[in-house]
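Issue 218. Parser rejects a valid record. Input:
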Amino acid sequence: MSRVGAGLTLALLTGCGAGAPSPPPAAGPPVSQLRVGLSEYRLQLSAGTLAPGTVEVSVTNTGSARHDLQLVQAGAVLGASRVLSLGEQQSLALQVAAGAPISLRCTLPGHAEAGMTGTLAVAPG
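Output the parser choked on:
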């Protein structure tokens, strides 16, 4: 591979954030409204703990690639956004059970493996 080709490959991998973990969720009390930003290749969460019951989730694609979001609790899909393009937003209403954590991930091929995953705690009932 030429030096230019090797440099371009490294720049593309670095620019995409391959393998970079999502930042930790914000600390604070349990919330019933959550904002999730989707970008290459991370999730930005406005909170780290949800309150049990009805939770409103606002999902926004802030990246340049298309992304989606799936939320799973105790093996059951609580909700999922459609595939969103840059700037698109979707709101979801979820019924969250007390105590069991929620897993979040982008379901597009390779995105979760590149770091688009996260976990939210749920307050006890």
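Fixed in the parser; the record now loads. The longest strand covers residues 53-61.
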